[in-house]
Amino acid sequence: MKQRILTALILAPLAIAAIFFLPLQFFILFASVVFLLATKEWAGFVSKTPSSKLLYLFALILGVTLFLMPVEHIWLGQTLNSFISSGLVVAAVWWCLALLMVIGYPGSASSWKESPMIKGGFGLLTLLPFFWGLVVLRSVNMNADFYFGSQLVMYVFLLVWAADSGAYFAGRQFGKHKLAPNVSPGKTIEGLLGGLFCAVIVAYFASQYFAIAESKLLVFFIASIVTTLVSALGDLTESIFKREAGLKDSGNLLPGHGGILDRIDSLTAAIPVFALIYIYWLA
Fold first, then answer.
1. Which of 74, 95, 255, 278 could form a cystine bridge with 282, CB 3.0-4.6 A?
2. What does pTM read for this prediction?
3. In which band, very low, low, confident or very high, does the pLDDT at 158 lie, cut at 50, 70 and 90?
4. Burial class (CB in 10 A: 0-12, 13-18, 19+), 9
5. Are 99 and 233 in contact (CB under 8 A)?
6. How far apart (Å, rounded) are the C-alpha atoms in residues 159 and 226?
7. Digit-coded pLDDT (tens) for 87-115
């Protein structure tokens, strides 16, 4: 517990400072480091003897997307570049597939658990949209208000943290019905509902803070609820890959917390999904 607290006290302020104060180019560099560290851990899901090939491949793919999509072309006027928009739509489709995988587990794993290529593809579908979702949200309205995109990113973080905390306490106090016993036996439906309740409270205060127009208020709450639910899916999906790889944690980079993926598993789903909903229905 001391390790967990100490690590959190060091990392949380650094992450928040990066989100709020880094210029977009340096924020992209920060997000790239997170992407590559997560990729290195994903290699452990792909093979029990992970090599650096996946890291090099993902780094190359990330580099190509950055080359094709330079910072100044993320937004074309008020419209998000169609290349990035399409990537976020693909991410939404991937998380629908992931939901089916979680519901059908362990039977659903039979079609991919012996295929390093498919597991690597799942990693790319998880991590690349997460990277671009972060960049898109951070860049929203940046020329007019440098901190607005930071606040959007932070809002998704707060939703996920509130949902995690609410699920933990509600699950301990009221949990009786298992949510996905074959995937994560400790999670309960009551915990999910408790987390959702806490997230809705955060969404209410955020709607006041962002001064969401009455015409978009319902969409904002729906976006927040969907983001919260899909964040739980991100957690469960990573649990499947860890279970199939025989791992308790994705890595040991963060003392007391496991690996990078253990900390961002919910965010890998929440960030691109919220970004997709925001740019089409809230921006």
1. 278
2. 0.95
3. very high
4. exposed
5. yes
6. 11
7. 999 999 999 999 999 999 999 999 999 99
How would you label 146-178 residue by residue, b for 16+ Cβ within 10 Å and e otherwise?
eeebbbbbbbbbbbbbbbbebbbebbeeebeee
Retrieve residue 218's tokens: 């319902």
| Pair of tokens at residue 221 | 């709450």
For residue 118, which amino acid is it?
I
Residue in 143, 165, 156, 123 with CA at minimum distance from that of residue 19: 156
C-alpha closest to that of 68 among 83, 88, 86, 85: 83
d(CA 18, CA 219): 29
Q: What is the pLDDT of residues 181-218, one digit of tens each?
A: 999 999 999 999 999 999 999 999 999 999 999 999 99
**Locus of tokens 């496991």:** 258
Q: Which structure tokens are listed for 275?
A: 């970004």
d(CA 199, CA 82): 31
